[in-house]
Amino acid sequence: MKTKAPLALGAIGLGFALNACTTANDDAADMPPLPAPPPPIAAPVPQLVRPDGSYPVKPLEKDVVVLKVVQNTPQNLQDATTVKEGLAENVKRMGYWIDKACTEGKKPDFILFNEFPLTGYSTGTRDEKLEFTIQIPGPETRAIGELAKACDTYIVFGSYASDPEWPGHILSLNPVIGRDGEIVQTYWKSRNASRLGDDGEIPTTTIENVRDKFRARYGIEAEFPVVQTEYGNIAVSTVQIDPFVFAAFAMRGVEIMLRTATGFSPTDVKAIAFYNNFYSAMSNITFPEGAPVPEGFGGKSLIVGPRGQVLAEDPSNNESVIEAELNIAELRKDRRIPRYPMEVVRPVFEQFQQELPLNHLDLPREELPQTRQDMKALLDRVSRWLN
Length: 387
Prior knowledge:
- The chain is α/β, with parallel strands linked by helices.
- It has 10 helices and 13 strands.
């Protein structure tokens, strides 16, 4: 009985509310439409480049640092008994070369590996290649972190990777592991080289082909991050034959540009270092004899100086460690970022239309291209130059 009175009053109240709404709607029909709300205010862009040509740094722990580059042959996970066993084997192989780098020659401050020392260079469809990825962080990066801590060095390498935040995407990531064994920064590949051959296009996901979603999640500063270390300002990239990407890193204050590869041009490495007045190095994968890759595809790792001069190299496809001393204190004397003629070239740049639009891989999982040929078909479909 006690519940009926409130229910009755609620019905009466509902009637009054409905009548009020009807009256208000009748009145609203005679009123002019409300003005559209103002567009949302875009978030301010943080300062990415200083206007006076300087750049932020940490004080150097020492003037001259030692960089070692390892070129080695991983076990391809496609050839392993299981993925878990293949990863364990490749961690072991990396451990062998880290120990060699740390106990022979000068003590390293940086050790650079190639693009795929943990997974090898996979082939096959998207669904097949996703089985041969790691997650970062994960057990493999933790194991490498212990080796970095034991050697008191930074360790840098690339890997095929997957991420639950990017379902179905194959990522090409480069973690930087610090002297304390922790991941300092993980670099996404900025963009893939395209239109290089007739066998299709690279289907891995880069910043360029999911740029808006990447920026929303990680911020604009994550697109060209520079790690300010006690040994100099570093960045890492797997990009090839792309001077604009490295110019952007240079404007952000890079002093040592670390690069990972599966096939590359030594001329590109020397030229980029020369153009941007920084040290650079490339670690390339090596392949066993008889591997189904083009001749000369493996090895040739090198370290170059700010004028493009070769400081160390291994021109062979053999496993090895090369090393060089980098005088960062000398490089910093009166140094500014490169003096690009931006105002001179801007009229041309502003009229240039990039062939492939941003975000072309921001697709539902089921629509992501499975093969290199599928990727080529997608690029042809979205191309501004072909359509």
